């Protein structure tokens, strides 16, 4: 159940509506949008506001600039959005200030403008209240439709909501509803596949899921910390030594307690002496690791085991590739997870980020039940960490008043 007010609950007609979107998209060398998934995801909210005759002011970040950076101006996203909407989207050269205010004053209902990259202002990441207040002064209503940034306590994500009636857009609502179901009412068996390199990003989810999922499958660079914690030699594979004790505790809990969860670790891996295209590779069982080699993908036996078991599931959550899938030598594990989920009878929820990129790389992105637009935000939500961008919105039992 979604417990926050949405744009359905507020009269936006002829109102200035500030919409936080997440257009942090990759760009091509010639400064074109390379992947428009996040832009497309916001279209239901923007089209609704156009239909309801709001004056729509979009704000986003792009990249991680340290001050103004002409390479990270958001003009390409405005051009892409214009094509989707089949109407002009005016991109302004400032984010705040009198020039912006004058343009907004002459907007007509249904007009759409995009402010310049919000992170050109250092005050954005500091959640500076003066900056948030000035940004809020441009509008009558605030809408958060940037799930991918909802875990950031930034001025345009959380701070501005202190000064305006703040509600959710359709994308943000949809994200929370799908992820909440994983925690509260998944169809069982409920299986989770976690990969990627940074174990710190996944530990919170693993701990919370131990009494929620029926089986947890591990791969990617993070699995070697668990394999080492289990007593295996993993050669020169990536190991997060600071997290070995936590990994051991998780293994002990699964093995020695009455936890609902089963834990599947790789049986074999694809090894190489280095990460490089065309490098020599070998497949070996985890008991037979080469001391000077590193594991860079799950092996064929593990792929077969994971696929067979996942086909029994009714709900699957996946976040993180199984190996260095960008190189063909180490792509088979991630490709097999993509293929298995694509043809599974289960509901398949994917946690965005590298998993989304892998789906698109292998041609499976349109075959999932739901793909999140926020890898980091989805993990924070699932581990139980409150998201500032969601917490700041009006609860459903709070009346909506627009000045």
Uncertain runs = none
User: What's the main sheet like?
Assistant: 6 strands, parallel
| DSSP strand tally | 15
Please state the second-level CATH architecture of the largest domain.
3-Layer(aba) Sandwich
Task: List the keywords.
single chain, 403 residues, Rossmann fold, 2 domains, 6-stranded parallel beta sheet, 15 helices, 15 strands
Question: What does this entry look like structurally?
Answer:
This protein is 34% helix and 15% strand. By secondary structure, the protein is of the alpha/beta class. The chain has two domains: 7-174, 3-Layer(aba) Sandwich (Rossmann fold); 186-382, Phosphoglycerate kinase, N-terminal domain (Rossmann fold, 3-Layer(aba) Sandwich), CATH 3.40.50.1260. Helix 12 (332-343) links the parallel strand 13 and strand 14 (347-350). Helix 9 (223-229) crosses helix 10 (244-256) and helix 11 runs parallel beside helix 12. The longest helix is centred in the middle third of the chain and has 15 residues, at 170-184.
Summarize the structure.
The protein has 403 residues and is α/β, with parallel strands linked by helices. It has helices at residues 37-41, 43-51, 75-85, 98-105, 122-126, 129-136, 170-184, 199-209, 223-229, 244-256, 300-310, 332-343, 354-362, 375-382, 388-391; strands at residues 16-20, 55-59, 90-91, 112-114, 141-144, 166-168, 190-194, 215-218, 262-264, 268-272, 282-285, 294-298, 315-319, 347-350, 370-371.
Protein topology:
Blueprint: E1 16-20, H1 37-41, H2 43-51, E2 55-59, H3 75-85, E3 90-91, H4 98-105, E4 112-114, H5 122-126, H6 129-136, E5 141-144, E6 166-168, H7 170-184, E7 190-194, H8 199-209, E8 215-218, H9 223-229, H10 244-256, E9 262-264, E10 268-272, E11 282-285, E12 294-298, H11 300-310, E13 315-319, H12 332-343, E14 347-350, H13 354-362, E15 370-371, H14 375-382, H15 388-391
Parallel strand pairs: 1-2, 1-5, 2-4, 3-4, 5-6, 7-8, 7-13, 8-9, 13-14, 14-15
Antiparallel strand pairs: 10-11, 10-12
Helix pairs in contact: 8-14, 9-10, 11-12
